């Protein structure tokens, strides 16, 4: 899937749309989700044109991959989530209901989060 530079997170990265910023460095930007699904719900996005985990891990420079994942860890730390625990999640593609086609990692925390998925698997 080709990267669409008009997606909402691309606009946030370019400063065309505001966000409630939590953290920023040369590799990543983190901001609170506009529609939080937990007391803490933050998104971390890489600074680069990547749709999801597949193209990011295949095509991004190693320095960006390292910097991005370090940023995810730093954000969880800065949000004070590490001791009690938190969840990271990255949706990719249709089956995962990815809405925004720019790689993002959700960080959820601030309460017990329950089971990993809220639906029962049956084959
Ligand atoms: P996805 O389903 O793609 O993994 O999640 C996209 C997330 O982006 C959703 O949780 C949604 O609430 C959030 N989101 C969509 N548009 C905006 C926006 O303009 N600003 C912020 N802060 N979050 C957004």
CATH fold field value: HIT family, subunit A
As a percent range, the share of strand residues is 15-25%
- CATH architecture identity: 2-Layer Sandwich
Major beta sheet summary: 5 strands, antiparallel
Instruction: Compute the average pLDDT.
Output: 96
| Radius of gyration from the alpha-carbon trace, in angstroms | 14 Å
Number of E-type strands:
5
Instruction: Return the domain count.
Output: 1
Q: What is the CATH top level name? A: Alpha Beta
- Class derived from helix and strand content: alpha+beta
CATH superfamily: HIT-like
Shape: globular
Helix content: 10-25%
Strand order of the largest sheet: 1-2-3-5-4
- Outline the low-pLDDT stretches: none
Q: Can you list the ligands bound to this structure? A: guanosine-5'-monophosphate
Summarize this structure briefly:
The protein contains 3 helices and 5 strands. The protein has 123 residues and is of the alpha+beta class.
Any descriptors?
single chain, 123 residues, alpha+beta, HIT family, subunit A, globular, binds guanosine-5'-monophosphate
Write up what this structure looks like:
The protein is of the alpha+beta class and 123 residues long. It has a single domain, classed as HIT family, subunit A (2-Layer Sandwich), CATH 3.30.428. Helices cover 24% and strands 20% of the residues. The chain contains three helices and five strands. The chain has a five-stranded antiparallel sheet, covered by helices on one side. The longest helix is centred in the middle third of the chain and has 17 residues, at 62-78. The mean pLDDT is 96. The structure holds guanosine-5'-monophosphate.
């Amino acid at each position: 899937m080709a990267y669409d530079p008009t997606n909402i997170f691309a606009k946030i990265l370019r400063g065309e749309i505001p966000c409630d910023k939590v953290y920023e460095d040369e590799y990543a930007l983190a901001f609170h989700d506009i529609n939080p699904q937990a007391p803490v719900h933050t998104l971390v996005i890489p600074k680069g044109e990547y749709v999801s985990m597949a193209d990011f891990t295949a095509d991004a420079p190693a320095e960006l991959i390292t910097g991005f994942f370090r940023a995810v860890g730093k954000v969880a730390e800065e949000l004070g989530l590490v001791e009690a625990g938190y969840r990271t999640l990255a949706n990719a593609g249709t089956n995962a209901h990815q809405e925004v086609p720019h790689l993002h990692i959700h960080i959820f925390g601030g309460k017990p989060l329950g089971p990993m998925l809220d639906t029962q698997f049956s084959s």
